[in-house]
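User: Could you write out the 3D structure of this protein bound to phosphoenolpyruvate? I've included everything you need below.
Assistant: Certainly. Input first, then the structure.
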Amino acid sequence: MSQASLGPGGARRLLKRLRDLMAGGGTGQERLNQTVRIIAADMVAEVCSIYLMRPGEVLELFATQGLKQEAVHKTRLAVGEGLIGDIAAHARPLALADAQSNPNFAYKPETGEEIFHSLMGVPILRGGRVLGVLAVQNRSFREYDEEEIEALQTIAMVLAELAASDSLFGPPEAALETVALLPERLEGLKLNEGLAMGRVVMHQPRVTIRQMVAEDPARERGRLEAAVERMHSAIDALLARADLGHAGEHREILETYRMFAEDRGWLGRIGEAINAGLTAEAAVQRVQDDTRARMQQVSDPYLRERLSDLEDLGNRLLRHLTGDRTAAQAGALPDDVVLVARSMGPAELLDYDRRRLRAIVLEEGSPTAHVAIVARALGIPMVGRVKDIQARAAPDERIIVDGENAIVVLRPSEEVREAFQAAIRARAARQAKYVALRDLPAVSRDGVQAELMINAGLLIDLDHLAPTGAVGIGLYRTEIPFMVRSAFPDVASQVDFYREIYTRAGDAPVVFRTLDVGGDKRLPYLEMADDENPAMGWRAIRIALDRPMMLRQQVRALLLASAGRPLDVMFPMIADVAEFAAARALVDRELDRLAARGLARPAAVRVGTMLEVPSLVWQLPALLERADFVSVGSNDLMQFLFACDRGSTRLAGRYDVLSPAALCFLAGIADAAAARGVPLTLCGEMAGRPLEALALLALGFRRLSMAPNSVGPVKDMLRSADIGAVAAYLRSLLHLPDRSLRGRLAAFARDRGIAL
Ligand code: PEP
Ligand code: MG
């Protein structure tokens, strides 16, 4: 390369000149014009241009040195169009010695650019959003090197910060907008139902960098080192906090920490950016921007996860450098907080004032994530897996969260806001109606009685028993207290916990399910298997039978806690009768132990099983002879029946629980249980949806256990239905070759005035 390249010293000088320029007077346009002039001169380029994003994903030429001035504010390229559009679309730099021969080149005659052969462009990025493109061009077939690309990226970042801080675009150019200012409707995954409207609060707000350009790189390197050290000790302290709990989070932090120790490249890149003239915090952010841009390119989930770890780490490091805090730590929140985060632990959520919290939107998250469980317990609407929500939303923007339909609307228009207000009012009116149903019996018009129960997993869930009028806890998922500890809880602390559940439940029955860990529910103190399909791997009863002390201690604690009261206990993921028999034998051993020590027995012990693995259905006669009750876990049962991941957004809606296949399967179970008089419950998600619940009642299910919010709607449906008529109709459809019977059943129900 023959042209003068920008060494670290040169880059620093250039950044300093840019900063002085920005700090000076003049309109935004004048300063932009000077900016391109300085960059062109410094980079020995004949052309330097700045394109900025306009609403509608259009890049507009805002300033140029070297191209024709008449093209300014005229030349426009759609994102993806031409080389400039390509840089914006992929948020990545491009350097071409012969730009015009590139298939993406789009010729814009008004610019007069045909005489410039080489081009180097970089995205102007801020917070993962592309604000524009900065490009230089040369007449010769110039090969730009890595260092020059880096230098241009650093300049683009300084421009982005200046653009955002408004010092670049004073009035009247303040009209500049980024694409993201239009209303946007984003889809995600339902983590909790409910409708809410509020203002965006970034759980980890973007750190404000007050100074971008540094005079003394050595001092900045020192600041970086000190911050890295502070971060190390903070992470160590976090890991040492036994009470902090939350397995997944711990593990993630630990892994990030380890990876960080190995990732010298990351620190190295930050060091280079400091050498180029940035302050330590600007350098971290510069590398963050790269990471974010890389994340957009990567589809491999493992790599994405690693990159997002790096991003988290960068955020931590930034906070150590600037002293900024998270939104919860900072306080002073609006009255209608909609939290936006990449991911979040339950403890972090509980840091917020519940009265102000309207909804939560995450970039990640799954229905079984702890934070989702806590949000459900608190009744906070929540949508997960909303792509790039952190980058798309800005603090304090209005946002609507529709948990039921898993939709988020950013910057909603007046009309949309009104429509949602109406929906929120209608929902509140419905809730009021369900409250009125609380003390009425759960009985259909033709006298079919059902037991409606709730699922629980947190102590807080028990508070829903009275207000919903549910008759008991049909499924108590015991794993959560195990997951929020850093060591296996001993028998005594388990006893305390189960006693507390009994106390809070009052006279209502509670069905305890033994530990269902494994899969995505990890215990920090138990080495888990790295199964290719964790849902079908070493989990639940499979772990319990291989590590019997875990199950025995849990059963021991349950027996002690239930002294004098009936104990209902069931096992998750039983696949054959032998497994059930083995698990039941462990309970018997504990009962013997109790007797040998002369300790009080529960008033009754009923041992049942979840039915969530299809193989068990072909052993129903043998099972029903041995089990005191059966509870169908339709979430897992359906995922295994259809070989369809229950968490997959792509597959959601592909197979229907109201298909002939699924309903025949369930009918077989109901018939067998009824014939032998064994109590049968269904405790998966389908029990809580009125149409699905109607089908279940029609097939003969009489006990349904569901999320607390569903009790009202299901009772309302039941009280308006003639179950005998629905049963006759539904049974007559089971032989049909249809994909789903949903439409027919819904029409039948509507015609008969059943409340759905
Ligand atoms: C089920 O699988 O339907 C069930 C109730 O259990 P979980 O959702 O806890 O797996
Ligand atoms: Mg299950």
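The pocket of magnesium ion (ligand 2) is lined by residues 572, 612, 633, 635-636 (CB under 6 Å).
User: Perfect, thank you.
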